[in-house]
Amino acid sequence: MAAGGAPARIAVLDDYQGVARACADWSALDGRADVTVFRDHLDDAEALVARLLPFDVVCVMRERTPLPAPIIARLPNLKLICSTAARNASIDVAAAAARGIPVCNTGYTSHGAAELTWALLLAAARHVPAEAASVRAGGWQTTVGGDLYGHTLGLVGLGRIGAMIGRVGLAFGMEVIAWSQNLSPARAAEVGVRAVDKATLFATADYVSVHLVLSDRSRGIVGADELAGMKPTAWLVNTSRGPLVDEGALIDALRAGRIGGAALDVYDVEPLPPAHPLRTLPNVLATPHVGFVTRDTYAVFYRDTVENIVAWLDGAPIRVTEVRPG
């Protein structure tokens, strides 16, 4: 309950598809909380603060709405932050902790992102959007597709998702190579792929797929030099985080035709601005950060969110993010 025994006021943000209520059983909050679901997205800090001022609990979907220290400081009623997935770098957990505000996370399923990676890669290789548009327009064949069998897939990162992508590449008969800053040949061999140095990966891969966690060390890890080292027919696929790739350098390479194209689900700024060049460049296949947007994943997200709120109302918060030193 909120102060004075009134029901807690809960804001569920950025429910783009309007499915938050249907993806979980919220009845455990009946009589204990008033839930307001917002389907729109606010970029403006003043408008966001004005919206959130009355709420005791703010529930965010991944990094769609960041909660940095200046925003948290202006929300005097805020008592709990619920965030989907296991981590959220866009929330200042230390600033919340200083106010005694727990930040509670949820479970996560990674198969959706891996599956979308292959959806994008296959669609790019076989020009699926262009051919589907041709059929709808009354036309027929207009392109010659690229092959996967016998060609090289380069993985930047070989964690859980990268390994899933690599195993599928092997099933397609691809040569799969991988690089990351700490990747060992032994780890690559466990997945059945070959570890190479960074320059070799970008120079030899026909498809480069990025699978790293965004951090200060990985930000911009695919830059102008890496893009310049790619084959002119190669495609870059990024379903991880936009800032892993130098967006300006990528746009320059795409405009100049120095690489075959890019298949992207993530961007530096999301939602992608309406006039952004990545929306219109002919050698870009773009989706609106839907890698994690699946029925199964949303069921986990919202189920755990409800559980987190109930636990907090009971005075024993669960799945609380720890404040990391430094």
From TrEMBL:
UniProt KW Oxidoreductase keyword: yes
Every D-isomer specific 2-hydroxyacid dehydrogenase catalytic domain range: 34-317
Residue stretches making up the D-isomer specific 2-hydroxyacid dehydrogenase NAD-binding domain: 119-291
Highest taxon of the lineage: Bacteria
MF term (GO), any: oxidoreductase activity, acting on the CH-OH group of donors, NAD or NADP as acceptor
Family annotation (PROSITE patterns): D_2_HYDROXYACID_DH_3 (PS00671)
Gene3D superfamilies listed in its UniProt record: NAD(P)-binding Rossmann-like Domain (3.40.50.720)
Matches recorded under InterPro entries: D-2-hydroxyacid_DH (IPR050857), D-isomer_2_OHA_DH_cat_dom (IPR006139), D-isomer_DH_CS (IPR029753), D-isomer_DH_NAD-bd (IPR006140), NAD(P)-bd_dom_sf (IPR036291)
Keyword annotations: NAD, Oxidoreductase
Presence of keyword DNA-binding: no
Protein family per UniProt: Belongs to the D-isomer specific 2-hydroxyacid dehydrogenase family.
Protein name: D-isomer specific 2-hydroxyacid dehydrogenase
Organism encoding this protein: Acidisphaera rubrifaciens HS-AP3
